[in-house]
Amino acid sequence: MNASGLPAAALLAALSSCAAFGGGRTLNRGPELATGEGEVVFKKDGGGGTSVELRVRHLPEPEGLEPPGYAYVAWVRHHPEAAPLNLGALSRRDEAGAELKARTELDFYELFITAEAAVDAERPTGRRLLWAERD
Fold first, then answer.
1. What pLDDT score was predicted for residue 117?
2. CATH number at residue 55
């Protein structure tokens, strides 16, 4: 179950296959990643929720990280001390990039990405690798 209460499959959709970034907020990168970059676009929608479009590229395979993971998972939280909620797993677009498009009812403070052993992890176990705070 993800942050909106809907199955992750209902929230995941492919973004355009355009490899170029532009128009979003650049994600900060943690020291665990020698490579990797990304951007996120937050858009309030008419239903009171927020759509999230996330694109990353140049990430290493999650199995090669310490601790190793199976997939990259995006998390959101509405307050710095709040428990993070699983927004969904990033879908590999090709060997250089991955993406996620989701919608949440949360008015959130932060989005971050970790490498996790399961796409439906209830809590992050990996380190915060990429992140952005929302205005």
1. 95
2. 2.60.40
Q: Quote the pTM value.
A: 0.80
Task: For residue 109, tell me if it sits in a domain.
Answer: yes
Nearest CA to 55 out of 29, 85, 21, 104 is that of 21
pLDDT digits (tens, 9 = 90+) for 35-85: 899 999 988 888 888 899 999 999 988 998 888 899 999 999 988 889 999
Cβ distance 49 to 87 under 8 Å?
A: no
| First vs last C-alpha separation in the chain | 26
Distances 54 to 6, 33, 97 between C-alpha atoms, Å:
18, 18, 11
